[in-house]
Amino acid sequence: MCIRDSSSSVGVVAEGALSLLDQSLCSGANFVTAVLIGRATTKEEFGLYSLAFALSVVLTGVQSSLFATPYTVLHPSLPPYRQAYYADVVQLHQLLFALVTFVVLTGVAMALDAMGPVGDGARSLLGILPIAIVAMLTRDHLRRMYLGNLRMQAAVTLDFAVLVLQLSGVTFLLASDELNATTAYVVVTFACILPSSIIIGLRARSLLEVIPGFREFFADNWRIGRWKLGTHVSISAGTKAFPWLLAIFHGPAATAVYSACISLFVVANPFMMGMRNFLVPKLSRLAAVSSVDVTSMVRSSTRIIGSVMGMGLILVCMYGGTAIEWIYTEKYAGNGGVVCVLALATMTWSLTAAHTDGLLALRRPDVELKSYLIAAAISMSLGALLVFRFGVVGAAIGLLVADGVAAAVRYSAFKVITQGSRANA
Fold first, then answer.
1. What is the pTM of this model?
2. Three-state DSSP class for 198?
């Protein structure tokens, strides 16, 4: 994979626009699929789908922490002839990770089925989930590698293909009255694995050639990735733990309500994740020159994020409850208050997103880890108590508190680190 260095302002804008488009395609496919399942099935069935999706998010985050994120940070410093070799080695690492994940998930599914009574819906979902997650992992790695190289057009092409295949399949199942959590993941598996297999197949020769160097770069990846991995595990045990806490204390139906409410904020994903997909490689390049440039870009990015997200979240607070009922039917009515609290939590997180990316570019991923360890402690103590006592409302409040504290830690650390760098310059 080669690097395109877009130095002109037109190139920067074009790359940013394509990054937003790519994230729109990715988030849009997931959002529409969730809405169709939420409308067509029971709360319990939608809850099972949401829990499986939450598991896929956890595992793709682990994978990204170990492979794509270190690659994005480290590959700009390599000579061009080494960058393609590095990309192939990292792809081999990912394929091994996917294989191990499949074996582990298959074993867990068999153990759960043998341990006790499992509903028919859960049993069939456990049967397809290992291969579905492997397909999702492989597709996600490919798109992140494209984004890390600023190859936005390639990422858009991949995600457009997945969107067309996934939504076509889900729509067919809906029309046939066969849509449920299990059949949806069968479609997702096919939609992800088909284009991913073609891409990897085209690279088969170069992948085989780097097998002797399989262990190369592992130490460098681990040096960066361990912090991001720790951060992701902390997030999963913290701010991402509330769907699981709701399922434990109140059942899958409560998870379905929480998932329906928080799905409104998927509308912001194309903007927020698109910005971050662009910011991480861009800030990594700026950090190689000066921390002053990093600070300037973080400030300007935060102003843009705050303006866009602020306007959007005000509208969500005003009309979110009505939107939930309209999108998911009257089964999910009466949750406007939950949506408002989740909007505040989203705003809190988004205002420090650029600071988090800046810390990564400055080789201080440990700060994000520490902030989310604090958030995890809050979620597993105060958050769990709030969920147990107040259900979905308690989960929203717990998320707001955990996100707020973590955001304050990251903002303060970025300010101290960049001021120190300028003083030492």
1. 0.79
2. helix
